[in-house]
Design brief:
21% of the residues lie in helices and 60% in strands. With 139 residues, it is α+β, with helices and mostly antiparallel strands. A nine-stranded antiparallel sheet has the order 4-3-2-1-9-8-7-6-5, with no helix packed on it.
Length: 139
């Protein structure tokens, strides 16, 4: 009799645990990634560590934004799109007298983004990894 009681209790506990786990997974998958905000980004080109600030706004269904670097501010983003968790856009970097269009692709996970920048410079295409964190809003 005691064994049946323990067995029934274990089955009940296991059933409740499984329901809680699957409920948690459903909630986590239901949360959509949101690109809107200001992101502090870091990347390396060659052996040089660099920074930029990305700001994404939403107006209705349209996304827009700007990119700032230490020596260039308020560069308007072009073709800003967010689909299936991926943020893509391009921006023009003015650097050392050169105009360099850069295509960006990011995946957003909560308050972190990770992706790549790709540019053609001197006839060669170069890619670099970028990571960023969303700035917290003051409440």
């Amino acid at each position: 009799m005691k064994r049946n009681f323990l067995e029934a209790n274990m089955k009940t506990i296991l059933s409740v645990a499984l329901v809680l786990v699957f409920s948690g997974l459903a909630v986590a998958q239901g949360e959509k990634a949101d690109p809107v905000g200001t992101w502090k980004c870091e990347y390396k080109i060659g052996d040089q560590q660099r920074t930029s600030e990305l700001t994404i706004q939403k107006d209705g269904d349209n996304l827009s934004g700007t990119m700032n670097w230490p020596d260039q501010e308020d560069e308007k983003l072009k073709d800003v799109k967010f689909k299936d968790g991926k943020l893509t856009f391009s921006a023009v970097r003015n650097f050392g007298g050169n105009t360099i269009p850069i295509d960006y692709t990011f995946t957003i996970d909560g308050d972190k983004l990770k992706g790549k920048g790709a540019a053609e410079f001197g006839g060669q295409k170069q890619e670099f990894d970028i990571e960023g964190k969303r700035e917290k809003k003051d409440k």
